[in-house]
Amino acid sequence: MTKFSKYVGRFAPSPTGDLHFGSLVTAVASYLRARSQNGKWLLRIEDIDQKRNQKGSTYSILKTLELHGLEWDDEVIYQSKRTEIYRFYLNQLVEKKLIYKCSCSRKNLINYYKNLQTMEYVYPGICRNKEIENNVFSCRIKALNTFNINFTDNIQGSIEQNLEKEVGDFILWRNENIASYQLAVVVDDELQGITEIVRGCDLLFQTSRQIYLQKCLNFTTPNYAHIPILLNKENQKLSKQTKAEPLKNINSKENICKILNYIGYDKSVINNLYINSKNSNDLINNSVSYFNLKKINKVISVQFE
Ligand SMILES: [Zn+2]
After folding, report:
1. Known binder of ligand: residue 36?
2. What domains, with CATH codes, occur in the chain?
3. For the segment 21-43, what is each residue's pLDDT rounded down to a tens digit?
4. Residue 257 assigned to a binding site
5. How many other C-beta atoms can be found within 10 angstroms of the C-beta atom of residue 228?
6. Are the C-beta atoms of 173 and 243 separated by less than 8 Å?
7. For the chain, give me the number of helices (H) and strands (E)?
8. Which side of the chain, N or C, has fewer Cβ within a 10 Å radius?
9. From ligand 1's centre to the CA of 109, what distance in Å?
10. Model confidence pLDDT, tens digit, residues 1-13
């Protein structure tokens, strides 16, 4: 049996379509980082927003990971089955008087921001001291400006944010009666014992919100390492929304080599790995000992070629 270190990493895709190249980069980087630390690599399906889920995509994501030699540890967890767990932690924050009901619709807020002629959507606390009698409401946490949140990202360096000025009170429970992304991700990272989160830079400025929540819930703050996101020719993030092509699983060895190039492996190392590996399983596991977080580019985004 494998003896693991204390390191626990994870990959947490949403089943809103097939995996595309951009998400596979995150999967491979987090996998190699975890294995290079002799750690576990866990898989979590972020399927809480059932309206956005696409039938069959969980299966297709797991299949694509397998075909690229990415084997996860322990059981896969599904956020859609964990609503009561999230509610338990929401209630802890209610008891701490950090939560209030909000009945602002997206439309109202957009009008409000338009009138302010602002580009920064900082929630202005409209409902903070209101009695909400509506049956439909979301729950916000007060972003109290007792301290600036700062952390040292293992790739991007020092990041600092003032939640009150830059974000405002944010939603923890949505009016469809499900946990928000922020609450679910923080609870799951804690309960799964994640020690480091390797993910795309599109989430870099969500991190302060998550650290704030961890502090409010007396959770441990994990380490963070945000890798550059890939941009298409129109300078948009490769994603399902920008119609990124799904991966061709038959090219799994080529896909992995391409990713190794993006995460800083030397060309000669990649060539040797390619030649000396029978299949993608071999290739990914032979790549572990060459992984070096410091070789990943300290930029927010790179062009996808
Ligand atoms: Zn409101």
Report:
1. no
2. 8-81+184-303 (3.40.50.620), 83-181 (3.90.800.10)
3. 999 999 999 999 999 999 999 99
4. no
5. 20
6. no
7. 10, 13
8. N
9. 8
10. 568 999 999 999 9
